[in-house]
Predict the 3D structure of the following.
Amino acid sequence: MSQEANTTIPLPLLNTDTIVQNEIDTIENELVTLKNEKKSKKETITDTSKNCFSCKERSPKQVAFYAAMCPGLGQIYNKKYWKLPIVYAGIGTGVFFISYSGSNLRTFNQALTLRLDEKPETIDQFDGQLDDAQLTSFRDYHRRNLQLAVFGTMAWWGLSIIDATVDAHLKSFDISDDLTMKIKPTLFSVQNSIVPSVNVSLRWK
């Protein structure tokens, strides 16, 4: 919602007729300017209405939801296609290490289970190569790598969600002419007398 703050600064007394004429001229000029701005905005709306997707305001919450549903979907919705290789490279690397560490963890877990079942007929694939302590050490090593890979992948996904949400916020950031400060002459009434002054107008959203 637009807000406007006005401050009136009195100036030394000047010729009243001259001030009134200047005020009339200023008002006429502002009316012409407003008419031209209205016409320009109408033409801009007509042009942008041809492409609804580009003129549609991005909702940060909706973008965050899309990005959380599927990696890269938030970037696609924001039309930041160049970021997709970065997002998918990080996710793909994480998935690779999750698969690699998970496979090794299963292998050493199975070998350690066979080694410790106290059945002489069961022999693991590392028999004669690794002792029990080494099998346990390798098992713990790959378990830790699997956890790091999972956390890293989730963190990268989270960063892609934050990136898409920030982009959506920036797209709706107001840098329009509604953020203005105008200074113009005006008349200020003080004890039944007209005093020339300067009107400072601040407008923001």
